[in-house]
Design brief:
Elements: E1 2-7, E2 10-19, E3 25-29, E4 32-38, H1 44-50, H2 52-69, H3 80-98, E5 104-108, E6 115-117, E7 122-126, H4 134-146, H5 155-164, H6 168-189
Parallel strand pairs: 2-4, 5-7
Antiparallel strand pairs: 1-2, 3-4, 6-7
Length: about 190
Amino acid sequence: MIKKAKIQDMEVEYEVIHRKVKYARLEIKTDKLRIIMPLNYNKEEEIIKKHENWIYKKLSRIKASQEEANNKELNFLMTEPEFRAIVLLFVENLSNDLNVKVNKVYFKKMKTRWGSCSSKKNININIYLMHLPIYLIEYVIFHELTHLVEMGHNKRFWSIISTKYPDYKKQEHELLIYWLLVRKLIDTEH
């Protein structure tokens, strides 16, 4: 069930999801706030109040990115076979740079992320990535391959990313902008 809360000058839609977790946590995917809470814990107002500044900052950034997305377009010229070949070439070259071995590369339509990396050294790539500029495709591949060196998004991980992308925050921001465009595409497909 979608609920609403007033956070500073913003009305925020959120949903509460109860799971077998020890602590409550917040997730913001595009412009929706999700509160993951332990079973039988129903104090979402306290959680929202405690993290009000963080929520406001994140949603303000997304709102500004939505405005930037109005000035961008997805690329529909690349074919899926071309995209697969480019990704595999990037995986080969970048895995050599990082001195890592990839088990398999899978291509999937994903609704929440550009890619992922498993502990079995498999890389999953979102097929919607084919609609982005080549330099962002390369960045996502490097990002996922870096997880073969460091699984978490911690200081060491970002240090490795910054060896190739000292301005990685710019790429991360652009990925958010393009994600907002891809979400519209996904919504029209369903």
